[in-house]
Amino acid sequence: MANASTSLMVRLDTDSKTFVARAAELRHVSVSDYVRSVVVAQARREVQAAEQQVIALTPAEQQAFWQALQEPTALTSAQQELGALMRGE
Fold first, then answer.
1. Contact by Cβ (8 Å): 37, 29
2. I want to staple 12 with a disulfide (CB 3.0 to 4.6 A). Which of 16, 30, 41, 44 is the partner?
3. For all residues of the chain together, what is the average pLDDT?
4. For 18, what's the count of Cα atoms within 13 Å in the CB-facing half-sphere?
5. How far apart are CA 89 and CA 65, in angstroms?
6. pLDDT in tens, 22-31
7. How many CB atoms lie within 10 A of CB 31?
């Protein structure tokens, strides 16, 4: 019984379901097979990254992260007040 399977029900909005169905069609597989292959592969990557304590970023995410570090945001007055309060000022 090593190949026993269980069901997983997922609710999607109409737009999302249309994209999933189209992606499955492009791969010439059923929607279930498409979701299974994509979701399980992504879940494995995320679990492995968590176990290795590594954050994996796509090149676009790496660029966005680097830009965020280069362009620190200005604190709001409420954030500045909270910082002063936490420092005991």
1. yes
2. 16
3. 91
4. 3
5. 32
6. 999 999 999 9
7. 14
